[in-house]
Amino acid sequence: MQQNSLNQYDKLSKAFHWITAIAVAIAFVLGPGDFGRLLHDGIDPGARIDIVWHESLGITVFTLTLLRLVWVAVRPVAPRPQMTSWMRLLSQLVHLVLWFLLFALPITALLALGMEGHPLTLLGGFRINELPLLANSHLSGLADWGEVHKFLGDVIMWLAGIHALAAVYHHLKLKDGVLKSMWP
């Protein structure tokens, strides 16, 4: 039985949410903070399973986010629990920023790889040694994309933590079903 009542997200929305959340958290933990230095020291990213997993999860998050965006456009109506207008506005803002970050993180990672001429190495031995379209784009010189990616990774983890705390607050204090609506 598909859950599409007014107080529950549908099963596919829940799956997208939780798989994405888990993938982002694991990618963050596996993200080598000294990635640029490792590559400049001649370390092959394909020889580092943490890098391979990090990059594979990044591509997975990007793909899931694209599919999720399509699903949001056609899915059953999302729950709209009662809440004050400032809470609803803040909730919408946080969700908008999270969506932005779910796209921006993989894009900034690819820009960093392309700008520095490093390969994209994924699970299963799939590897793209050069990303010339990114390396030669006008975007490549606008920022240190590796630093931008690292900063945005920290931001998404902080914001996801605040998002989770807000859901727990809704569950324990307000008892309004917000957490239950997305719980598997």
UniProtKB/TrEMBL annotation:
Family to which the UniProt record says this protein belongs: Belongs to the cytochrome b561 family.
SUPFAM superfamilies: Transmembrane di-heme cytochromes
Record's keyword terms, sorted: Cell membrane, Electron transport, Heme, Iron, Membrane, Metal-binding, Transmembrane, Transmembrane helix, Transport
Name this polypeptide is given: Cytochrome b
Cofactor(s) the protein requires to work: heme b
Chain ranges of the Cytochrome b561 bacterial/Ni-hydrogenase domain: 9-184
Native source organism of the sequence: Herminiimonas aquatilis
Regions that span the bilayer: 12-31, 51-72, 93-113, 155-172
Coiled coil (residue ranges): none
Compartments (UniProt record): Cell membrane
InterPro entries assigned: Cyt_b561_bac/Ni-Hgenase (IPR011577), Cytochrome_b561_oxidase (IPR052168), Di-haem_cyt_TM (IPR016174)
UniProt membrane topology term: Multi-pass membrane protein
PANTHER family, per database record: CYTOCHROME B561 (PTHR30529), CYTOCHROME B561 HOMOLOG 2 (PTHR30529:SF1)
